Every structure is written in structure tokens, then in C-alpha cells.
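Table S2 (text version). Query chain:
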Amino acid sequence: MNFSVRYELYRGFFERALTEKCERMDLSPQILAESMQYSLLSGGKRIRPILFLSTLDALGADYARETDLAVAIECIHTYSLIHDDLPAMDNDDYRRGRLSNHKMFGEGNAVLAGDGLLSYAFDLLLREGMRGKDHLLAALELSSAAGVQGMVAGQSADLGSEGCGTDEERLYFIHENKTARMIAAPLAMAGILAHGDTDALRAFGRELGHLFQITDDILDVIGVGMGKTLGKDDEEGKLTAVKVYGMRGAERAADECAARCEDLLQTLSFDPSFLAGVVGLVRKRNR
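Corresponding C-alpha cell output:
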């Protein structure tokens, strides 16, 4: 089975599980449910839950038993996108080819939609944590990556990066925390639950996260079909790989990052071909 077919199988499985979860949400007032589900069901690559499910599968675990954790991963990612688009943050009117949450429902409702998705994710994590120590540790892995020592710290550093010139150390901190930690977490979670390769998976995931963000910085300049406004990072003076290294240097940094990903895959105890396909997908993406 080739990579694209496998990817779509995992994505199809996840989309069905996510839709079923949304159908069972009993939320009031209605605008809260509508605004949360507007962003949660807006498609996208679903890379984070797919990394989680596919790695469980590769390690011989039954990934169908862990759908709530996969949903929690995507809820946290989606909340971060809603808040990232707000006028006080990146001020973006579009996400995934359609209006951002705050442009559809207003800023206040968008804030609450993000809050709702984050708290709902922790409801799922706590319930799963009651299954045993491994699930509790997996939940802790995700909460750490999403919180003040992970994504939130990276977003804070990113907000304060305007006018920072070409600070390579600060750029690394932003990429590591804003993006890489939340890509590494699903892989490490799978390792925890399936009792294998956790440290190696986390290391690979962080490198993959850096590749993802460097590529994102490049695409902010030259991307097509991104589904969001291009050129905003440069317009706002944000610290990016392109600003620090130039376009050629950023392309070279991405290639070097992809090569490190490939090297790390060789340390895993299972067939890494699907994860190698993800590396190629991230490096070659145009959106």
C-alpha cells in the first residue's frame, strides 16, 4: 500500500471519529457549538492525529481504541489556530481557505470557541488518564507540549519577535516551542502507550516540527493555495527562517532538517516508511 493511500485511510478513520464526537457534543448556547465545530471540522492535513494513529499501528497497538486521545490532539491544535488568527495575535482573516473563526462569529465568540476546545481536550485527556498510568503519562506529554513550557511559550516569543532582527537563537526557541513540541507529542504519546521508542520518536518529532515550521516560513513568501493571507510575517516584521537565513538559506535549512529526520528514522525499531513519507509530504508541501 503506497503512502498516499495509507495517509488517506488514517485521515478517513480520524474524520469519521471526529464527526461522531462532534455529533455527541451537547452544548448550549448553539453559537458555542457552531463556532467550535466550524473550525474543528474544517478539514486540513490532520498531521498530528495521523502521526499518533499511524505510529500506534506501526508499533502493533490497536489505534481504534485511542480515538479520544487523537481527538484531544486535534482540539488543542484547532484552538491554537483560532486564537492565532485573532486581531491581537496574527490578525488573519482566512484559515484553510475560508473565513477565520472570529470573522464568522466575532472576536468574543472566537476566544470562547478556542477556550471550549482546549477545555474539552482536557476533559478527554483526564477521562483517558483514568484508564491507567500509560494513558496518564500520554496525557501529560500532550499537556506539557501545549502549555507554558511548550506552545504557549513559543507563541509568546513569536508575538514579541517583531523588530528582533535576525536572532537565530530566538528563532530556534519559537520553532521548537510553538510548533515542534506539538508535533513531537503525538509520536511520543504513541511510544508511551505501545511501550516502544518513545525517546527516539520524540526526537524525530521535534526535528519534523522544525522542518514543518521552516517550510511554513518559506510558504508564507512563495506559497500557493495556502488558504490564508501570504506575506503577513514579513509585513509584521516577524522573526522567520527566511528573515534569518534568506530564501536560499531557508531552503537549505529545510533540506538539512529533512535529512536529519531521515537519519533519526533509522534508529526506530519498526518500519519507518510511513513516517518517511510524512517527512516528504512536509518538505514538498505547497500549502
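Notes on Table S2: The two ends are 25 Å apart (CA to CA). The chain has one domain: 3-284.
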